[in-house]
Amino acid sequence: MLAIDVISTMFLAAGAFFMIIGTAGLLRFPDFYTRLHATGKCDTLGQILIIVGCMTYEGLSFITIKLFFVSAFYLLVGPTGTHALMKAAYASGLPVWRKGDKRM
Amino acid sequence: MIVPFLVVGIIIATTILVCSYRAIYGPGTFNRIVAANVIGTKAIVLLIVVGYIIERPEFIDIALMYAVIAFIGTIIIAKYVERGELC
Amino acid sequence: MKKEGWSFSIALTFCVMFAFWMLLSAWTVYLLEPYDLFKVSSRGILAALIVSFLTYEIFVPSRGENVLLKIRRLIPYIGWELWQIYLATIDVTKRVLGILPVDPRIIEFDTTLRSDFALVTFANSITLTPGTITIDIEPEKGRYIVHAIAKEPAESLTVDQTMQKKVGHVFMEE
What's the pTM value of the predicted model, to 2 decimals? Predict the structure, then answer.
């Protein structure tokens, strides 16, 4: 077991843990707007950590540059998609959940 | 070095299965759109991990193309639900 | 070809697109047929020409005042942004596991940013900060409508105003 294998396994494990937390938030939160908070932030960081783990396993070659472009594209595009969904829901009148309401 | 990639792949596939509960039972349209978006995101990561398991580097190009197409699909569905027509 | 300086825009877009294509695909072609430069890059030149004729209006030269200074100030801002993504995920983890409460609300505030690029960068940064997501923007007055998940992230945006000062410093407070 080289040192690079251990570092890459730690990044992969951290990425998988944050993906599990994101899905648990999708099932547990009480409202549509709060579920977008959970998935929009946890999925972005989990994806970046898994791709960084794959990049350190590979070393320095052309595949590393391709993986870097995949993760940089998703870092720019993920929050934009979340904002577009939230604006569509707010403009078509979905009710907002306050503390003490029924679960919707 | 195949064992960590196999374990991560099985964890992500299980997460996709759990997330489809919200796609079936979510009350209303918007919860189902969010579940479809999350499944698309996890599918990109799953493509890269499977590319490492069977040792073929061409899967990364497929993941890049699928990321672009999933983003365009989400923006078009959000615009249609907001206005009732596509322009 | 309605705007001025369209030939410079097409040339610059073609160079950027061709360099990107060479970075992503030339290595497989080189391994198959070495030492034949026209065969390696003919597909790249055709693809870059088609794309740059359709989308040349991004690099319009009338928008580029102090571009190098803005790029040099943007790189430490991206580093601070990656640290905020990590803090945001730790905050969501605590709310999922039940350590901190969930108490959402909607807030509105005004800023002094007016150009397109500054408004979009600030909206993306609000989405990546712990506990807030942008809902709507009005471009004339710089007004943001934001959904916050509890009281502390809402107050760090309206009362402290750390992020408005940082973005205003990068784009020279438009």
Answer: 0.89
